[in-house]
Amino acid sequence: MEFSINTVTLFLAIMLTGLAAGLCFTWTNAITPGIGQLDNLGYLRSFQQMNRTILNPLFFIVFFGPFLMALFAAILNKATAPQTFWMILIAGGVYFVGVAMVTIFGNVPLNEILDKTDLMASNEQELKELRKQFEGPWNRLHLIRTITSAISFGLLILAGFTK
Q1: Of the candidates 62, 71, 81, which has an alpha carbon nearest to the alpha carbon of residue 23?
Q2: What is the distance between the alpha carbons of residues 112 and 115, in angstroms, rounded to a whole number?
Q3: Distance, CA of 30 to CA of 115 (rounded, Å)
Q4: pLDDT in tens, 87-145
């Protein structure tokens, strides 16, 4: 196997996208259903704390890295492998729209509403309303991220076979 910059960037795009898809899958499969069993205060406090904790440098690498590395890999493959170029570019586009844009314009605004709420000062009715406003929309948006990150990951793997 030849280890060119093209191969290394595609490998990194695949790895980072796989990590992002795995993160999304884990939230969809275990985390949100698990905390969904909690009462309103427990659910909202758990989500609030996870949202605060996940914002760290490693998360940002895994979150933004797939699109950036796919873009770089596509550019490097454009002249020498047109079919690979298109597959990588489509994978990066799917990730950008379905994960990054959905997150920025959908999940993050919901997270910010939750983050600004003093849960301990809220009564049970306020907690119930906040959860109703947050949980369903957040989970639907996250399902989009899970599906599109998995599609992007699969396309990048296929791109690796077209070289």
Answers
A1: 62
A2: 5
A3: 22
A4: 999 999 999 999 999 999 999 999 999 999 999 999 999 999 999 999 999 999 999 99
Q: State CA 98 to chain mean position distance.
A: 8
Distance of CA 25 to the CA centre of its chain: 9
CA distances from 95 to 51, 60, 66, 81 (A): 21, 14, 8, 21
Q: Rounded to an integer, what distance in angstroms lies between the CA atom of residue 130 and that of residue 141?
A: 17
The pTM score is 0.92
| 149 closest CA partner among 51, 64, 49, 44 | 64
DSSP, collapsed to helix, strand or coil, labels residue 36 as coil
Give the H or E element holding residue 138. Answer: helix 124-161
Q: How far apart are CA 17 and CA 10, in angstroms?
A: 10
- Find where tokens 């758990």 sit: 46
Rounded Cα gap, residues 147 and 18, in angstroms? 12
